[in-house]
C-alpha cells in the first residue's frame, strides 16, 4: 500500500499556513487577514513585525488563494529539492521581508497580501535551475522577457487590485537567489 510522503516540507508547510490564514480570515470576517496577514504602513509594533513576514500567507479570497497555491505547488517542490529546505525557507523569508518593507516605503496608502511575490520568486528561480558556470540559460531570458513584459504592461495599462510591482520584486529576489546559489556551488 502506498503512503503519502511529505516531500517538500517548506512548500507544503507554507501551503498549509496559507490555508490556515485563509480559514482564519473567513472565521474572523477578515479581521485576521487585515491585522495579521496583510502589510501596510503603520507604527512599529509587534503586530507590524508579524505583518512584514505574514502578509505572504494572507489571501483575499479562494480565487486569490488557488491561483497562487497552484503555481506554488508546481514550482516549489523541485526548487526545494534542488536548493534544500533551509535555503528555500531563507529565500521565502527574505522575499517576504523585502516586499513588505518596499510596500510600506513606496505604497503607504495600500495594503499588500498574498503569496504571488513568493510564486514569482520560485518561477524565476526555476528558470535558473539549469544554469552552468559562465552561461545564462535561455529559459531565464525568455521567462524574464515574458514576465517583465506582462508586469510592465499591467502596471501601465491595467487598473486592478494586483500588486504588479511586488511581482517584480519577487522575480528579482528569485533571480538574485539563483545567481547567488550558482556562485556558491561553482568550483573555484
Textual characterization of the structure:
By secondary structure, this protein is mainly alpha-helical. The protein has one domain: Rhomboid-like (Rhomboid-like fold). The protein is 70% helix and 0% strand. Helix 3 packs across helix 5 (85-106), helix 5 packs antiparallel against helix 8 and helix 7 (138-157) runs antiparallel to helix 8. It is globular, with a radius of gyration of 17 Å.
User: Would you identify the CATH architecture?
Assistant: Up-down Bundle
Average of the residue pLDDT scores: 89
The CATH superfamily turns out to be: Rhomboid-like
- Identify the CATH class: Mainly Alpha
| SS element count, helices | 8
Protein name: Rhomboid family intramembrane serine protease
GO molecular function: serine-type endopeptidase activity
Pfam family, one: Rhomboid
InterPro entries: Peptidase_S54_rhomboid_dom, Rhomboid-like_sf
Amino acid at each position: 500500500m502506498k503512503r503519502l510522503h511529505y516531500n517538500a516540507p517548506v512548500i507544503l508547510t507554507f501551503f498549509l499556513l496559507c490555508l490556515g490564514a485563509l480559514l482564519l480570515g473567513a472565521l474572523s470576517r477578515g479581521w485576521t487577514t487585515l491585522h495579521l496577514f496583510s502589510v501596510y504602513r503603520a507604527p512599529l509594533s509587534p503586530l507590524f513585525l508579524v505583518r512584514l513576514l505574514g502578509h505572504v500567507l494572507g489571501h483575499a479570497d479562494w480565487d486569490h488563494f488557488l491561483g497562487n497555491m497552484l503555481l506554488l505547488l508546481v514550482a516549489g517542490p523541485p526548487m526545494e529539492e534542488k536548493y534544500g529546505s533551509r535555503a528555500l525557507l531563507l529565500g521565502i523569508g527574505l522575499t517576504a521581508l523585502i516586499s513588505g518593507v518596499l510596500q510600506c516605503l513606496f505604497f503607504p496608502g495600500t495594503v499588500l497580501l498574498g503569496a504571488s511575490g513568493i510564486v514569482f520568486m520560485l518561477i524565476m528561480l526555476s528558470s535558473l535551475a539549469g544554469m552552468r558556470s559562465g552561461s545564462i540559460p535561455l529559459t531565464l531570458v525568455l521567462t524574464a522577457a515574458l514576465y517583465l513584459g506582462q508586469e510592465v504592461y499591467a502596471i501601465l495599462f491595467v487598473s486592478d487590485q494586483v500588486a504588479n510591482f511586488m511581482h517584480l520584486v519577487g522575480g528579482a529576489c528569485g533571480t538574485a537567489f539563483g545567481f547567488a546559489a550558482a556562485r556558491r556551488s561553482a568550483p573555484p
